[in-house]
Design brief:
18 strands; Rossmann fold; 21 helices; 541 residues; alpha/beta; globular; 3 domains; 6-stranded parallel beta sheet
Length: 541
């Protein structure tokens, strides 16, 4: 068995069903072996897209997404997507080839040689591994998968020299799949947390991406209902509980009616979040000073922005779902009759937010409502970094976990279309909608060819304002536009059709609901151009 075959066999044993990449000169043996072992290989048109697709696949399934990259240029091209996966805590494995071991660091000008590929990959991953012999591959991959499943979700790199991929294993192949072991907090801390929650009169819950990663949605919903506690989320936590729930306030924590509600709270139960800039309105979120905080990554407790950090915190290091199940069970046995917030208070605060925003920005809010009305509850929305996506992060209701994909971490553009492709390959029976701007769409429009090849019925809403809209808005606000910022765009309808996609143009936002509904019923890849300039949401205005 060769090193490449060992890699493929380890992936197969670990349950990997799909890998994304391009068959670069050195990495081709891995792609070939993967296909022989029944792993689907999705050949993309740019390695950056492979990383985005693997990221989306991981977010939607909760399993590891795998990207293949050739030596040098291929590995370098993935770094933007892998950086996004790191910032958004997605379990992505980047498998990259390397020049032969004997040629490393010689400067001989070997094909695809770069100065420090290992360092390049290390800079955007939790860790980058390499091996000295083919026989080391199973142990190395086992360690990577074990860390992915038992530590905070992050991307990892695995760099394999071309000669090792061809080398025969010196020992019989043996691989035991890595398993997940649920981590629970210290018992003393756990009891302290239960006591603190039981004594609270008006607790609130704030859930982030870690809550979704651990599958804690159901237990958070039950805890919220037991405590009559409003549930707020980060952007990445949207959908932890259905945002139509009476106790859900989604990502509205910095809106004035919700701020007034939070002023009455005496405890925050904080679950799996780092309180990022975007999720907290540039760290303007204000929670009560007393917290119970659950996170798998102990390092996060010391990294919270000082404007956000609670002053009296019980810190629980453990899996969010398992930890909250224990807490809920103990509270159910000892809690007196529920106090908490009246549901009418929570519903009223949310209604006032929506009414206030809609009064100022009726077309934009109505657009989100129209989209929500015509897609299924479990439809997946892949947001590129565009003005429309800045609206969805707060005002678009999400009903299921793992259905709202946002370039949360690095804020890159070009994420939307490849993320939608990765999501559709992960969940072929789900509706998948991509929200793109004209600027970001041209970063990855070549992946229409990938979607057509694999007959992926995705709907792309392409908002065309002939600009990098968010950037231009900020520059206009600062009085720094020079008149040459408008983008020169192609005919997007002709472009999409040239790839084999269906395409049409709508003239007004009022048409979008019906057009999206028809496009999903048609069940084909469809690009809908919307040549309309949207106002930025009030937190940007």
């Amino acid at each position: 068995m060769t090193g490449a075959e060992a890699v493929a066999k380890c992936l197969k044993a670990q349950g990997v069903e799909c890998v994304f990449g391009i068959r670069g000169l050195h990495i081709t043996p891995v792609a070939t072996a993967a296909k022989r072992y029944g792993i689907r290989f999705i050949e993309v048109r740019n390695e950056q897209s492979a990383a985005f697709m693997a990221d989306a696949y991981a977010r939607v399934t909760g399993r590891v997404g795998v990207a293949l990259a050739g030596t040098g240029a291929g590995a370098a091209a993935t770094t933007i997507g892998i950086q996004e996966a790191f910032c958004s805590s997605s379990p992505v494995l980047l498998l990259a080839s390397q020049i032969e071991q004997a040629h490393l660091h010689r400067g001989w000008g070997d094909v695809h040689e770069v100065k420090d590929q290992h360092g390049l990959m290390s800079s955007v991953t939790e860790a980058c591994y390499d091996v000295k012999t083919a026989s080391d591959i199973p142990h190395c991959l086992h360690e990577i998968f074990s860390r992915m499943q038992n530590e905070r979700s992050r991307p990892y790199g695995f760099e394999i020299a071309a000669d090792i991929l061809k080398e025969e294993l010196a020992a019989p192949f043996s691989y035991q799949p890595a398993a997940r072991t649920l981590k629970l907090p210290d018992e003393r801390r756990m009891e302290e947390a239960v006591e603190r929650i039981a004594q609270a009169r008006r607790p609130i819950i704030y859930a982030g991406g870690g809550a979704i990663a651990s599958g804690a949605g159901n237990v958070i919903e039950r805890l919220a209902e037991l405590l009559n506690a409003p549930v707020l989320t980060s952007i990445k936590g949207k959908g932890t509980i259905p945002e139509a729930h009476d106790l859900s306030l989604g990502n509205l924590a910095t809106e004035e009616p919700v701020r007034s509600l939070l002023d009455k709270a005496d405890l925050a139960i904080v679950i799996g979040t780092r309180f990022s800039n975007r999720s907290t309105g540039k760290w303007s979120l204000r929670l009560p000073p007393r917290w119970v905080r659950v996170d798998l990554d102990q390092r996060q407790f010391g990294q919270t922005h000082p404007h956000i950090q609670g002053r009296d915190v019980v810190e629980l290091v453990g899996d969010s779902c398992a930890t909250l199940q224990v807490i809920l069970g103990r509270l159910e046995k000892r809690l007196p009759p529920p106090r908490g917030f009246e549901r009418s208070e929570v519903i009223g605060a949310k209604r006032r937010v929506v009414e206030s925003v809609k009064a100022q920005y009726c077309p934009e809010v109505t657009l989100l409502e129209d989209i929500r009305r015509v897609i299924r509850r479990d439809a997946i929305v892949a947001n590129d970094s565009t003005v429309a996506a800045y609206w969805t992060r707060r005002y678009f209701e999400v009903y299921e976990p793992r259905t709202f994909l946002w370039a949360m971490g690095s804020g890159t553009i070009g994420f939307g279309l490849p993320a939608a492709i990765g999501a559709k390959l992960a969940k072929p029976d789900s509706q998948v909608l991509a929200l793109c701007g004209d600027g970001g769409f041209l970063f990855s429009c070549q992946e229409l060819a990938t979607a057509v090849k694999h007959r992926l019925a995705i709907v792309v809403l392409l908002f065309n304002d002939n600009a990098f809209g968010v950037v231009d808005y900020a520059e206009r606000k600062a009085g720094q536009l020079f008149g040459d910022e408008a983008l020169s765009n192609p005919d997007f309808i002709a472009l999409a059709k040239s790839f084999g996609a269906d395409a049409e143009r709508v003239d007004s936002l009022e048409q979008i609901g019906a057009v999206v509904e028809t496009a999903f019923a048609r069940n084909r890849l469809t690009v809908v151009e919307v040549p309309v300039t949207l106002h930025p949401p009030p937190d940007l205005a």
